[in-house]
Amino acid sequence: MMGVAKRDEIRNAAGRLFRERGFARTAVRDIAALAQTSPALVIRHFGTKELLFLDTMRLTIDDEPLLDVPLEELGERFIEVMVTSGDDVRQVYLALVRGSHEPQIRERLRDIHETTLIAPLRARLRGDDADQRVRMAGALVGGLLYALWVVGDERLGDEDLVARYGALLQDVLTGPTSRRPTGGSRR
After folding, report:
1. What Cα–Cα distance (Å) separates residue 28 from each residue in 104, 134, 139?
2. Is residue 183's pLDDT more than 50?
3. Domain-wise residue ranges, the chain
4. Which SUPFAM superfamilies does the protein's record reference (predicted)?
């Protein structure tokens, strides 16, 4: 049982340091020091620093709120969920982006993109061009997260962000005509 407890201590220490510093600036010896163990034990439990990173950097977003709204409201709801998802999601996203030069980490980022952004949206769409629309939507959301979390563009953080970016996403998902009043012109 002591091995499992030590493994959990290493995992917790690594998760904390990877979130704070990123992959490249986190050394195995620092993880070991925080977990009060040896670097050799860290490697024995996890194999490599990259495998430990992949073990600790999990990103999930509860997609339940995405399924609870009508398709016509999905764009705004999706943006709201993404930008209010919490610091843990932001930290994991940043750690993955910063470590994406490593092939396995890049693959994890691609997998998260597919499972967290693409799959929940794809489940809601129909039509011959649904795959293209959902991939464009993923790129749009990814660009927002990059601007907010990587670049740190605080000027995007006004009260209109969710509504305005949600409208952009909605246009990509369902097309601009889906939100136009019949017989009216678009503002």
Report:
1. 18, 39, 34
2. no
3. 2-56, 64-179
4. Homeodomain-like, Tetracyclin repressor-like, C-terminal domain
pLDDT digits (tens, 9 = 90+) for 13-50: 999 998 888 888 899 999 999 999 999 999 999 998 88
Q: Is residue 96 scored above 60 in pLDDT? A: yes
Evaluate whether 80 touches 169 at the Cβ level (below 8 Å): no
Q: Whose structure tokens read 């799959």?
A: 119
CB under 8 Å to 161, separation ≥6 — which residues? 79, 83
When comparing pLDDT for 112 and 103, which is higher?
103
Read off the pLDDT of residues 63-94 as tens digits, 9 standing for 90 and up: 565 667 888 988 888 888 888 877 877 888 88
0.85 exceeded by the pTM? no
Which two three-digit tokens encode residue 129? 């061009």
CATH code: domain 2-56 is 1.10.10.60
3-state secondary structure the chain: CHHHHHHHHHHHHHHHHHHHHCCCCCCHHHHHHHCCCCHHHHHHHHCCHHHHHHHHCCCCCCCHHHHCCCHHHHHHHHHHHHHCCCHHHHHHHHHHHHCCCCHHHHHHHHHHHHHHHHHHHHCCCCCCCHHHHHHHHHHHHHHHHHHHHHHCCHHHCCCCHHHHHHHHHHHHHHCHHHHCCCCCCCC
